[in-house]
Structure formats: structure tokens, C-alpha cells
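Rotation project, supervised by the postdoc (A.L.). Task for the rotation student: set up a whole-complex structure prediction and record inputs and outputs verbatim in this book. Inputs entered:
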Amino acid sequence: MKKTIALGILALSLAGTASAQVKPEDQIKYRQAGYSFMAWNMGKIKANVEGEYNAQQVQAAANAIAAIAGSGMGALYGPGTDKAVGDRKTRVKPEFFQNMEDVGKLATDFNAAAANLAKVAATGDKAAVQKAFGETGATCKACHDKYRAD
Amino acid sequence: MKKTIALGILALSLAGTASAQVKPEDQIKYRQAGYSFMAWNMGKIKANVEGEYNAQQVQAAANAIAAIAGSGMGALYGPGTDKAVGDRKTRVKPEFFQNMEDVGKLATDFNAAAANLAKVAATGDKAAVQKAFGETGATCKACHDKYRAD
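Outputs recorded:
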């Protein structure tokens, strides 16, 4: 448990080192871009597991989700990104910034589920992908339910 | 050359099959999200090759770029996405849709450069990453110069 939390915090802080200074409004823009692009790819996987299955498409989509999840998005929640900056709105709740241990754990769960989804997608096994996809979606929802406003 | 073009068109059309129907305004939103998230990761790699080098951060960033590049973004240039849809603006030029063979070639070049960048980043060799990073940036610019309005 301790190790899981430590890994989560590491994942969240990874991109902080040696990173170009990114303005708060751009941090919000980039994190929203990451979630938006993952949503498109989740939608593609959903369509595949519910219909005709294209293993190559699912694998490419899962790779994108896993790589975005593993890219150190925690660095995009820096100071000044807890509320709208000019026209750049955010749905993140203040509680997010007050519970970084819990957020770190949720981030670790998400990273692990996304990495597993990519691994399973590489096998082309539709049923296994459906299971891993559901598990990944659950880790998204766990964070949204707690830390994202409607 | 013929093969390169065919591969490019394949890459552009890959995500079209079995995909959920995505509205034109959402296609524009998702493709902009992909480019935006890649830009953040390109910025991180740039900061690393110009300063203190964090191999793990560069590898994660390069993986994100390569996976997004390989996710079949061609499907996000469907009918009705050649100009603004409501509030959703786009900088794509009409010429993009009139030169799909050339676009396919540029997309193939970009995918190959991004995949190579990820491969090189895994070695942790800063000088080699700098070269591969420059080559990737050049393939971005090649398309922007021709098909993106200022």
C-alpha cells in the first residue's frame, strides 16, 4: 500500500523535473487535451468490443491511452491550476489538491489498468480486452467521482 | 514510393473501420487534443535535450508522441471537418483534403519519425535523441507549412 502510494506520487511528479515552464492556463489545456484524446480512444475500443472487432485499431487505441497515462500528467496540476485561468475553465475540485496521497493512488491504479489494457490488446483477445477495458474505465470513474465536478 | 503512399493512406484510414460515429465538431476537437498533447511532450523533450537530461521523462514523452501519432488520427479528418463547426475552429487548409496522397506521405513520414524517436529515447542517448527529435519536428513542420493556416 505504502509502495503503491509512493509510486503514484512519483508518477504524478515525474514530469516536473527538467520540464519547460508551462503556464497554468497551458497546464489546464494540456491535461484536458490528454483526457480528451484518451476519451476518443476509449470510445473506439468500446465500439470494437460491442461490435465488429478490429484488433489493430484496438491495439493502437490502447497504446495511445497507456502512453498518455504514463506521460507524467501530474505535472499539469501545478500551482494556479485549481480554478479557471481566464477563459480556460477546469472541472477539477479543490479536494483534488488536498488529497494528493489518494490522488496518487488513483493515478497509479489508472496507469496500471491502462498498461494492462495495452498488454491485453496486443494479444487480440476480444473477451480479455473487454474485461481490461472495463477495469480501465473503472479507474477513470473512481477519480472523476471524487475529484471532477459535473 | 508507391508503397510509402499506400501505407500513409492506410494509416489515415485505419481508425475509420468499426469506429464509433464521431460528430465533425468532435473530430476537430479530438485531433486538436492529440496535437496539443504531442506539443506538450515535444516541449518536454526540447527542454531535456537543451538542459538537464532525464531519460525516463524523455522516454515517456516520446512514447506518448509515437502512440498518438500511430492511433489513426486520419479518421478525424472526415466529411464536414474542413472548416469551423459552430464554435469549433480549425486551421486546416482546404488543400489538405485535395491532396490526400501527399498528406498520406507526410503522415507516414511523421509516424516513422515518431516511432524512431521513441526507439532512440529508450536507449537514453541524449545526442541520438536530439537528432531524432529534430527529424520528428521537421516532419511536423512539413505538414504545417503546407496544410495549416497561420
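Student's summary: Chain B has a mean pLDDT of 91.
Supervisor addendum: DSSP finds six helices and no strands in chain B.
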